[in-house]
Design a protein that fits this description.
seven-stranded mixed β-sheet, binds glycyl-adenosine-5'-phosphate
Length: about 525
């Protein structure tokens, strides 16, 4: 656990030091759970969005994209259920005056039990040479006991959340003797519901009438446009609508860096289907989305499915794709079978028909919806935590000779290639390097850097994940070739100048992730 904390702290520090992420309004001591993306962060985030957009919209002739407004008619949120049901259970500690999410306190308790199990497993794996982890988990009395406790608490929590039973949540906290993580106090208030939507006011209408919400999910912009899109694109069911955009939630627990933010970005796709086919499409999108994550190079062991213990008000089935963040397995993406809940509710409240005439079956119906929803910021955090490693320099015998390197997939890397003159005081080398940069920048995001020794420049490019460093040296002046250094293997190849743009493009192109 301590090692994981250190790893996470190092990651947060790296994000700031190398211009990936800054705390919002830092000069005013920051705004909690709100972050700004710096120069390399915004490039990486754009690449993640491009990967998602192309995988959804470009690769499927039955998925189209939209860009709906953040503000929507206030009735939208009544119909969607967010006004009445988009709540988190909140509890205050009377001594520390700190506010927590009751379900998160209980989940943290479950995580502690899981950590105890993992410790037992780790200890035993070191003791026995032919260690059978599955068998150990099933037979070791202490592990079985912890697991049973975890399962029982999870069941109780799930039932309380599904029923919205605040009294039961308080009872669980009391029964488990959960204390304020900061002060150890167990003096809690009752648990009560807290709506997560931010609201604001239209300038020209006073009072409740003019109250607007900042959207808590992008999905509703898709639902209200369902027929507009279907008619204007002549799509036939099954078809999908994809969207990337900001969402806002007044999160009570603001922690774990960009994992839980108050302003964040979602990449959502609503897939409109014939009622009764939801199970088939649920399985299809589960597999498709897992494959999308694995393509980035994320090891299979770091991704897992986790069925929802308590379903949101709109879903008849839901699963998370969880990623193993430095603080444990947590939700990265949700896949939800939303039935016809949203379209039916909008139809009812707006009085406008949202049915589809299916030429294949000659009937009209309100389509069912299969949703995939991944947080762009969580994806960013997953990519960074997966990629950032400290390793012994490849080829070196000295274990103390280490480097920090960000092993991002080349198609996602913020900078594809860095052009580095071997000697910055040699005008002819600098001129050649700048000439190469001017050619390369037309096809690839690249960077010219002559601000230090070549060793220091390599280290910096490793730390921001640049897959290729291109060194212009004295030989270049003679034979018009350059050295191309590979970030991961540190192998160097000599390449004619005219071949460099195609080489960089081919080895970093987004199509590498799509094929
Ligand atoms: N439209 C369905 C929906 O919004 P969700 O599970 O509440 O479902 C989907 O959110 C995804 O959005 C999550 O899997 C997560 O990646 C991201 N997300 C949700 N709340 C977030 C927050 N406060 N900060 C960052 N990302 C968040």
């Amino acid at each position: 656990m301590a090692q994981q904390n250190d790893q996470f702290k190092a990651l947060v520090a790296h994000c700031k030091e190398y211009g990936f992420i800054y705390q919002s309004s830092e000069i005013y001591d920051g705004l909690s759970a709100v972050y700004d993306y710096g120069p390399y962060g915004s490039l990486l985030k754009n690449n993640l969005k491009e990967y998602w957009w192309k995988a959804m919209v470009q690769m499927h002739d039955n998925i189209v994209g939209i860009d709906a407004a953040i503000f929507m008619h206030p009735k939208t949120w009544k119909a969607s259920g967010h006004v009445d049901a988009f709540n988190d259970p909140l509890v205050d500690n009377k001594d520390s005056k700190k506010r927590y999410r009751a379900d998160v306190l209980i989940e943290d308790h479950i995580d502690k039990l899981e950590a105890k199990i993992n410790k037992e497993v780790e200890k035993a794996s070191k003791r026995f040479a032919d260690f059978d982890e599955q068998m150990f988990r099933q037979t070791n009395t202490r592990v079985v006991e912890y697991q049973e406790k975890m399962d029982a608490i999870a069941r109780r929590l799930g039932a309380a959340m599904t029923k919205g039973d605040m009294v039961e949540l308080k009872a669980i906290i009391d029964d488990l003797e959960i204390a304020d993580p900061d002060t150890g106090s167990r003096d809690w208030t009752e648990v009560r519901q807290f709506n997560l939507m931010f609201s604001t006011q239209l300038g020209n209408i006073a009072g409740e009438e003019g109250k607007l919400y900042l959207r808590p999910e992008t999905a509703q912009g898709i639902f209200v446009n369902f027929l507009n899109v279907q008619k204007t694109t002549r799509q036939k069911i099954p078809f999908g609508i994809a969207q990337i955009g900001k969402a806002f939630r007044n999160e009570i627990v603001a922690r774990q860096f960009i994992f839980r933010m108050r302003e964040f970005e979602q990449m959502e796709m609503q897939f409109f289907i014939q009622p009764g086919t939801q199970q088939k499409w649920y399985e299809y999108w589960k597999a498709a989305r897992l494959a999308w994550h694995q393509k980035t190079g994320t090891p299979a062991a770091k991704l897992r499915f986790h069925d929802h213990d308590n379903l949101a008000h709109y879903a008849d089935a839901a699963v998370d794709i969880q990623f193993e963040f430095p603080f444990g397995f947590k939700e990265l993406e949700g896949i939800h079978s939303r039935t016809d809940f949203d379209l039916s509710s909008h139809q009812e409240l707006s009085g406008k028909k949202l049915t589809y005439f299916d030429p294949a079956t000659n009937e009209s119906y309100v389509p069912y919806v299969l949703e995939t929803s991944v947080g762009c910021d969580r994806m960013f955090l997953a990519m960074m935590s997966n990629a950032l490693v400290t390793e012994q320099v490849p080829g070196s015998d000295d274990p103390n000779n280490t480097r920090e390197v960000l092993k991002l997939h080349p198609a996602l890397a913020p900078i594809k290639a860095a052009i580095l003159p071997l000697k910055r005081t040699e005008d002819r080398i600098v001129a050649k390097a700048k000439e190469l940069f001017d050619k390369l920048k037309i096809s690839s995001q690249c960077q010219y850097d002559d601000t230090g020794s070549i060793g220091k420049l390599y280290r910096r490019q490793d730390a921001i994940g640049t897959p290729f460093c291109i060194t212009v040296d004295f030989d270049t002046l003679e034979d018009n070739t350059v050295t191309v250094r590979d970030r991961d293997t540190l192998t160097q190849e000599r390449v004619p100048l005219e071949n460099v743009p195609a080489l960089v493009r081919d080895r970093t192109d987004m199509s590498l992730l799509l094929g």
